[in-house]
Design brief:
Blueprint: E1 5-14, E2 24-32, E3 36-40, H1 47-54, E4 62-67, E5 70-71, H2 80-85, E6 87-90, H3 102-113, H4 117-130, H5 146-158, E7 164-168, H6 176-191, E8 195-200, H7 203-208, E9 213-218, E10 221-227, H8 268-272
The chain binds adenosine-5'-diphosphate.
């Protein structure tokens, strides 16, 4: 059975303002459901731009970007929050609240996503436990190590149970032991059925990640797209179609429709906010 592309870029070009060269030039790629793809390349190669285009934070100049078959740049404004609910994101720009505890950090994100109040605490606790952080920790995150803070950031991205995780240098500034620790967490997350796209320039990540693909950008061009023959240490459970069983969350097609699944009466927080804030009010 042909693998299902969950993220698909087709001839995407992006030029910022009056820049003399595009940040991304004619990039085409497909990431299949359940993959763990590394997006490699030196600083300035276009990695963050590519992730931001997938999140519809930036518009392409040319080309199309599809997530679960939907052209993300043709979604109405009202549908973008539903797209972003399917995309957990770990970005350097999305800082943790330094004075808040890990649990408060994750809870706030879930509240902003508009989860029902009774689900917020249980989901936040579950997400922290999954990445090995004590949900009852009372210290603010600024007192935690860099590795622990990255785990909290991962928990925050995963707490909404997105089927796709986009991570931009999630091991940036971590020492080799902590880098490997985060990579192991990602492997577990993938084993639970989440598709991962991880941008990094770190060769250590390339060496140790149990990734299935490597995509290599240089000066905005995709110069390499290679399958990696690395056996993961955890084998994802497969369903009758040979797809990884998604214990975190399924992309629900309806969530991309213009009609919110959740009625205003159910979720006043989510619907009162401007949609552009929804996934990013960290
Ligand atoms: P990477 O993530 O690989 O470091 P980026 O996607 O951040 O690469 O940057 C690719 C190119 O686009 C760089 O030349 C960078 O200076 C430029 N760029 C990125 N973001 C912006 C922006 N908001 N405005 C103008 N230029 C940008």
């Amino acid at each position: 059975m042909a693998a299902t592309a969950i993220i698909e870029l087709s001839r995407v070009t992006k030029t910022y303002g009056r820049a003399s060269r595009p940040a991304l030039a004619d990039v085409s790629l497909r990431i299949n459901r359940g993959e763990f793809a590394l997006l490699m390349g030196p600083s300035g190669a276009g990695k963050s731009s590519l992730l931001k285009l997938i999140l519809a934070m930036e518009q392409p100049e040319r080309g199309t970007i599809r997530v679960a078959g939907r052209d993300v740049h043709r979604l109405t404004r009202g549908s973008i929050p539903y797209l972003r609910r399917n995309l957990g994101a770990v970005f350097q720009d999305f800082k943790l609240l330094p004075e808040a505890t890990p649990l408060e950090n994750v809870r706030l994100t879930l509240q902003v996503l508009g989860l029902r109040r009774r689900d917020v605490v249980s989901r936040a606790r579950e997400a922290l436990l999954r990445v090995g952080i004590d949900p009852d920790a009372r210290n603010p995150v600024r007192c935690m190590s860099g590795g622990e803070q990255q785990r909290v950031a991962l928990a925050r991205a995963l707490a909404g149970r997105p089927p796709i995780l986009l991570a931009d240098e999630p091991t940036g500034n971590l020492d080799p032991a902590l880098t490997r620790d985060i990579l192991r967490q990602l492997e577990l997350i993938r084993a639970a059925g989440t598709t991962i796209l991880l941008a990094t320039h770190d060769p250590l990540v390339y060496r140790h990640a149990a990734a299935s693909r490597v995509l290599h950008l240089e000066s905005g061009r995709l110069i390499e797209d290679r399958t990696l023959d690395r056996a993961p240490s955890f084998v994802a459970e497969l369903d009758e179609h040979g797809e990884p069983v998604d214990v975190l969350g399924e992309i629900d097609d309806d969530e991309f429709s213009d009609e919110p699944l959740v009625r205003p009466t159910d979720q006043p927080h989510a619907l009162r906010r401007p949609e552009s804030d929804l996934a990013f009010a960290f």
